Amino acid sequence: MVRLSRTHGGSGLGLRVIGTRRKNRARLNNVATRIYLSLGSNLGDRAAKIASGIAALGAAGIRVLRQSSLYETEPVDFFTQNWFLNNVVEAETQLLPQRLLQELQRIELTLGSLKQIRRGPRRLDMDILFYGNSVIRTPELDVPHPRLADRRFVLVPLAELVPGLAHPVLHRTVAELLAGTKDTSRVRLAEE
Length: 192
Prior knowledge:
This protein is of the alpha+beta class. It is built from four helices and ten strands. The strands form three sheets. Strands 3, 4, 5, 6, 7 and 10 form a six-stranded antiparallel sheet that branches. Strand 1 and strand 2 (about 10-20) form a beta hairpin. The chain starts with a strand and ends with a strand. Residues about 1-25 have low confidence and may be disordered.
């Protein structure tokens, strides 16, 4: 049996595993958790990379429920690169958050993604936006995604799927976050 304990610290609320009866159980919940993932690509056949990433989720223990349209998005922070294709996936998983992160990183590597420049070009980038209503702050993982409210390329496709979803820290819906973001980068439906 896996028990999670909430820990309080200066950086926010965190979770830690208290104990397990079996080693493999630390990777799974007993029930599926609703999750939201952001996928993006700006190198090569962007749509094919995103489609391949979504197709690989099932074998990783992540059941895709719905996905947003593809959006062509202007680069943010690192401007001298190609525009991205982005979308959001709504899914369920029994994987615990750290294991989910590991599976997404494995999929990225399998599909040839190398993160050589922070916020730079990507064959495929997969991020955890929400893991149920959990708030997770560890050195490896921040959920909800810490820059979600500042990123139109995430908020627009997320609002397409779940405009009324409430952020568990900011206590505002996705639609409210989108209406209030200071990000002015261009996001448009993809024609691919």
